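Fill in residues.
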């Protein structure tokens, strides 16, 4: 069985990817900042993306890299460069130093519009590094990722339970369940001329995406409150909300000024031309079923 190195394996997407890789019988070397529980077929490697020696140890003896780790939100946009751009450059260097060719990179749909946010700009810059690396690469740009363990969508579930779901102005976006995204990342590990040099934008069973109103209604149904109503927030109110969230939650704020930048964009629907080939992957979770499953998980954890 192949041995794969996974970064970000203790985070939301990375943990799901680790789970799928182990289920598929792969051996995994996983980067971790803190002590992790021993696990069959998993070798934990202490380190961070700015430690070259740790990254070389991580990828030593591996057949492929799945680079998930990155910074998605911070009150300090300057941190995106170090985490997402320099961190990716360091992973590419580590892979090359150990003779690894296969490199799967988790980017973001926000990279399509790099002028809207520092986060999107950092992911777009990281994509260019991967494209110019000379490795056998595949880039995956997920849309909104939700599922068990996610905290970004949790506030919307809590709001839906109360009956009012604050959403951005008119627009549409795609979604993907974290388990489906994880299955795609693991499916991309084998060397395959079909996937080499490709950038994919995966989604659930709805190729046309969801309006903010539709998403709010689905979350309302998921939490058992079908009367939940979407309330569209003007840009000025969203920017003010980001300031308030920063004051209340500091570094843990979910709504930042940088996030407002791309949330105000009206089209985050995945490009049909960038769909992963059906011979490689197909989504299992539809929006309604996936959100209902996520709501149930939140309830079981006492989060909702």
């Amino acid at each position: 069985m192949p041995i794969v190195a996974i970064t970000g394996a203790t985070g939301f997407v990375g943990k799901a990817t680790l789970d799928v890789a182990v289920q598929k019988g792969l051996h995994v070397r996983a980067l971790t900042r803190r002590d992790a529980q021993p696990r069959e077929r998993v070798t934990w490697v202490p380190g961070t993306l700015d430690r070259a020696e740790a990254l070389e140890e991580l990828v030593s003896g591996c057949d492929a890299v799945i680079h998930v780790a990155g910074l998605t939100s911070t009150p300090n946009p300057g941190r995106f460069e170090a985490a997402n751009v320099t961190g990716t450059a360091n992973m590419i260097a580590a892979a090359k130093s150990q003779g690894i060719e296969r490199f799967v990179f988790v980017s973001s749909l926000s990279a399509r519009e790099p002028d809207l946010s520092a986060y999107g700009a950092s992911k777009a810059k990281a994509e260019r590094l991967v494209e110019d690396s000379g490795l056998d690469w595949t880039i995956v740009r997920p849309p909104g990722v939700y599922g068990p363990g996610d905290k970004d969508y949790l506030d919307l579930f809590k709001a839906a339970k109360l009956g009012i779901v604050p959403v951005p102005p008119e627009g549409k976006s795609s979604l993907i369940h974290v388990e489906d995204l994880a299955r795609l990342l693991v499916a991309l590990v084998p060397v395959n001329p079909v996937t080499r040099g490709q950038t994919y934008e995966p989604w659930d069973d709805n190729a046309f995406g969801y309006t903010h109103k539709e998403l709010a209604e689905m979350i309302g149904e998921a939490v058992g409150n079908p009367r939940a109503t979407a309330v569209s927030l003007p840009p000025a109110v969203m920017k003010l909300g980001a300031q308030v969230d920063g004051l209340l939650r500091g570094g843990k704020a979910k709504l930042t000024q940088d996030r407002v930048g791309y949330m105000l964009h009206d089209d985050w629907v995945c490009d049909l031309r960038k769909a992963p080939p059906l011979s490689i992957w197909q989504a299992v979770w539809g929006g309604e079923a996936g959100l209902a499953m996520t709501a149930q998980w939140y309830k079981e954890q006492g989060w909702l």
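The chain has a mean pLDDT of 93.
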